[in-house]
Amino acid sequence: MAHKLLEIDDLCVDFQLPDGDVAAVSHVSLTLAKGETLALVGESGSGKSVTSTAILRLLPELARTRGAIRFNGEDLLGVPNRRMRELRGNRIATVFQEPMTSLNPLHRVGDQIKEVLRLHRGLRGQAARTKVIDLLDQVGIPDPARRATSYPHELSGGQRQRVMIAMALACEPDLLIADEPTTALDVTVQAQILGLLRELQQRYGMAILFITHDLGIVRHFADRVCVMRRGELLEQGPTAEVFANPHHDYTRMLIDAEPSGSKAPVAESSPLLLEAHDVRVLFAIKRRWFGHSDYFEAVRGIDVQLKRGQTLGIVGESGSGKSTLGRALLRLLESRGEIRFDDTDIAHLEGSAMRPMRKRMQVVFQDPFGSLSPRLTVGEIIGEGLRVHHPELNRAARDRRVQQALSEVSLDPGMRNRYPHEFSGGQRQRIAIARALVLQPEFLLLDEPTSALDRSVQATVIELLRELQRKHDLTYLFISHDLAVVRALADSVLVMKEGQVIEHGDTQALFDNPREPYTRELMRAAFMGEAA
Amino acid sequence: MTTESSPYSGADRSPGLPAGGPNPPTQPDPAAGQSLGREAWRRLKQNKAAMVSLWLLGAITLACLFGPYLLPWGLAEVDWNAFNSPPSLTDGHYLGTDANGRDLLVRTLYGGRISLSVALIATLVSLVIGVLYGAISGYMGGRTDNLMMRFVDIMYSLPFMFLVILMMVVFGRSILLIYAAIGAVEWLDMARIVRGQTLALKRREFVEAAHALGVSDRKIITRHMIPNAIGPVIVYVTLTVPKVILLESFLSFLGLGVQEPLTSWGVLINAGTNMMQTAPWMLLVPSVFLALTLFCLNFLGDGLRDALDPKTR
Amino acid sequence: MLNYTLKRLAMAVPTLLVIITLSFFLMRIAPGGPFDGERALSPAIEANLRAAYHLDEPLVMQYLRYVGNLLQGDFGPSFKYKDFSVTELIAQGFPVSLELGFWAILLALLIGLPLGIIAALKRNSAIDYGVMGTALAGIAVPNFVIAPLLALTFGVLLAWLPAGGWNGGAWQNMVLPVIALSIQQIAYLARMMRASMIEVLGSHFIRTARAKGLSESKVILRHALRPALLPVVSYLGPAIAGIVTGSVVIEQIFGLPGIGRYFVQAALNRDYTLVMGTVVFYGGLIVLLNLVVDLIYSALDPQIRYDD
What are phi and psi of A339, to 5 degrees? Predict the structure, then answer.
């Protein structure tokens, strides 16, 4: 009988928590053929990772699993532990999301790969060493013989993920479970890793179960797709079909949640609001007792010009200095160079002289969990700026302004006496926006304001930001690593790398026709889904 | 007005597991928030061991404060009818007497006063020094921080118990010196903890946001830093108190701490050790008081830590 | 590695200097001279004594002389044990204290670590609660309470073992002091080991190890144990300091002729040179052992070995 490689039949996983059972996965059935790539898509809490972990039987003890998971016809939920261990790392291999912490920090990477070879293949000594070097070579690690003796902390994130893949490939598995393998990586590295996975899949003919929240990757990478939400499987089918004709509203919403549209240009006559020249930021990395300290130049002489009502997008990978630049422009960091806001030189304003300017330029950060003081109520958080800049307001007036700000970001003003931890990520980001808005600023620094949010929530926050910009004629500096979002929001874009501007231009022109190779690489990596 | 009311907004409401977590809008009283402090208190109340410890500590403290007034014997009062008499309900010496005919319960309660007062004052000293030092070091950062922490490192590797004893030898054994010496020893950990907290908080985005709002440095420290650093400090204080009590009784046990006519648990245990073959209660009574107090404080400290930081369980 | 060792050594020197300087000047500002206690000294004799002990020189000279002598291993004469130098007294007492401390730390490691590991592996089970409850008791009951109780029970009531005395280092005489000295450290080590092990077992690379198909025992032995031991190793410094401090009181209770006993006697008798000598000696010992612990740590953790 020609059975499928993997058949999941009516899988249910419950977590037995002190407050009662919680269903993490309910009645999921799916199949995966030899050599096929199946994407399991969903937002956080959808149960996609629980499903894949259940296949390996690596769920925590408080999980109760029912149903059947047949691998080559054998029900994994019924086999003894010994058999399960024979399959793990051998026939079923895994690559996890966290490359930085998934390798044992105290063992050399070569030894960690060798361990698999020895366990499942009985390879030892020179034979094992040769195989390890061969594997590292196959996953594109330069100088594999030397790298095999490195410790994980000596490798970059991308290289560690390559080591994880080499380890997974060691026994040429039939099934590779890739659990968000590229989420923690920069886009260009992400593209390389995905390319590598695809190439290796063709070489070894293995099936891949690809768990992700990123529809762009799915479109590019998967033969078939399963959409999950709150533990349930909503819809499955061939990728192209699902994307072209989603049956379920949720799937449609996910696809539509990809940011779209573009920014309406501002009038030519609009005055300059923010103007910066040759901005530099230095960080001391090693302090010496005598003589000069060693410095790292995070921002290396950048010019910025922003007209009232415009949005400037700053894109770049981690470590490019984009957030540092943003903070320097707001005078949250010491910097060199000129910064003029509405024709006032703010680069040299000290303490109290800067204070009136602060009211006019505000900020929204990435981390919705870290950006609100956990011990203040939402009302106190939003009202804090009013206390500083409008000491004339009495308590009632301040409260009215707070309520107004909350309704402006579509939150119930009745919730202003609650604490931040009682809100969801998307709601907190709205609170952070309200905190900025209540001062009626002219300029907002948006530092990855949607990056920590699920796609569907992200879409609503972006819509809110657009609406607020139109209504209040706000000027945005939008920092993001997500090119799709920037394309939808910005008038012009500044591409940064290693503290410098690589390319700068109007959004439309830059996206249609990137000049620099680095920009092209970024775009290819970010939009490969659409290109395919 | 649209709240986040797309049918799918639940997806981002509960990180981790689905359908968990409270759903704010449907709760009965949206106006009343649950502050972290109150939630911690609620969790602490569920911890039976910690609550029992809290009650016991309260009882011991009250007994030490008021007990001596309720008992018919004085600290140094000699009962000529009862030398070395074992615990008994009939002669009024409920926990026996010592070799000089002094009531052991009264002496233990008086000793408790000294031990607890040392704990309180020395911990306060260490708290003040540690918090100031740590906060300054962490807030200043850079070279100042480097220098201040190097100093702490060096202090750390000093054999402190011996230096305290040295101080007792040099300056004479006064109770004031015990307060100061122990406090001066115990501030190091506090300084490290507070510095760590300050450094971490300084980098938190809500502190940056406050800077962006134009909030003054003083307000940032009082409104944003201190309230958020206070949890670990409370936990650490609860764990410092037993250490201090232990240190004091250690010194007193060796005869280098509290001196007659005053007494403390350490002094009483030392006296009991010498008499343990003939009058074991003299060892057991103060030991039980001391051990019980330390036990409760440790339980309470563990409970507080779990309550303030539920992740670590 | 060599670099790191040198760095740590460079840190140890100022620490030692602080100890020496601090104890020297503390002693010198002591109210009353060292001969106050001995009545009826004629001024002439006292002047002679002062000269003999170099107390008539300027303070700085005295300090330099003291440091210079220390470097040659000379801690000066004892004020009270007139026929002995401090160095001789320390040399006499140290072997006893060393033996006691060595067995105590060994016992603490051999019992504390396995208990902590077992508790972590059987988390939230009866065993875990039992071990952790006992550990908490071990922390709460000080060693100067445990020691007399042990002596009373096993030495006096049951009379299985001697209740005190050194007896030339016979093993029977060592058992109770070693147990009394190690109990608190057993408790601390077990608690730390448990916490550290639980944290490591929840980490991503343990999940990776399981996904490789390793058996649970190999996962623990090969992947969990070493990382979990790291924080425990860094605690060994304070643990050793705790044992050294504890030995003072244990030697006192069991009447063992170690340095701790000399130290307490000296402190009670205000034997300045002996107190100072022992403090400096203990300080040097603790600094040295901390250094050893640091080096062990750096040998176990590649991230330190290569970063520094």
Answer: -135, 120
